[in-house]
Amino acid sequence: MSNKLNVGILGGTGFVGQRLITLLADHPYFEIKEIAASERSSGKKYVEAVEGKWKLNLPIPEKIKNITVKNITEVEEISSAVDFVFCAVNMATEDIIKIEESYAKAETPVISNNSAHRMMEDIPMIIPEINSNHFEIISEQKKRLGTTRGFIVTKPNCSIQSYVPAVNALLKYKPKKIMVSTYQAISGSGKVFSDWPEITDNVIPYIGGEEEKSENEPLKIWGNIEEGKIILAKEPIISAQCIRVPVSDGHLATVSVSFEKKPTKEDIIKAWKEFESKPQLLSLPSAPKQFLTYFDEDNRPQTKLDRDLYMGMGISLGRLREDKLFHYKFVCLSHNTLRGAAGGSVLTAELLKAEGYLTSK
Hints:
The protein is α/β, with parallel strands linked by helices. Helix content is 29%, strand content 22%. Helix 1 (15-24) packs across helix 13.
């Protein structure tokens, strides 16, 4: 008999949902039992529901093809078959809040890829290597929801997951100001090149809502729990520009940062190379062997060469040098649909299981 936890995927026909399916099809901890989507996909075999819409280079896993897709509103039926769900739906914010809370109140924990709940004071927004201590707020959230095992955990925006890990390793030097520009792949909008011919040979200097998320979400990641709430950090102050570039996958960021206690270049590289955290110490299945990898070459990291580092779960860093306005500047890179979306959610679920927050019903 399998000891795996049974999993549902809400929004399983979309881009992130497809990534989740490929990552979970043969996962050692989790077994896909239910896939749910909108009414138009409900009742179809999964392979039929994604016909003409499968966006990945990987094939649809054979064991998944004939699963019948349910309507995401079938909360009780889906919840009765699974131990928890991943949520990656494409809906209005108020509808996402409603559907995620309905699953949590049905005693089914929700690992969300959506932004709707990210900034709520009792819902943790997790980068597993950085702020798993925020899991502690789950007990307060359960009180509000009136649940015994149901809760919601979110992942942050994909745009922050290249530079926040790099800065996080340097927190002892008290970063004060950050200026960041992110150069974001088209998969971040759920598209491939065939969907979006206008992006070819083009750069679009605007991504709706991304700059606000890039400036504000790190402050929750670095926040503290006080009196049953996650209180945002007051520093560093972050100024962000987010730009869409003609790249399939991978968000690259250029970062300038000033510190209260200026480290040496050697201090910074040492902090990056020696950074360790729970996912690595626990050898979780999706954890990269090395969270942060620094490249000495002047022309690295490169999106095409380095986005798949450690199966797309590693963060690549390079070009550290002194800055004339700030103390230092550098370049970093993360895979937006793996580390930044589906893979980050799976790693979060692995850590929740390891720490006893996800259990079998």
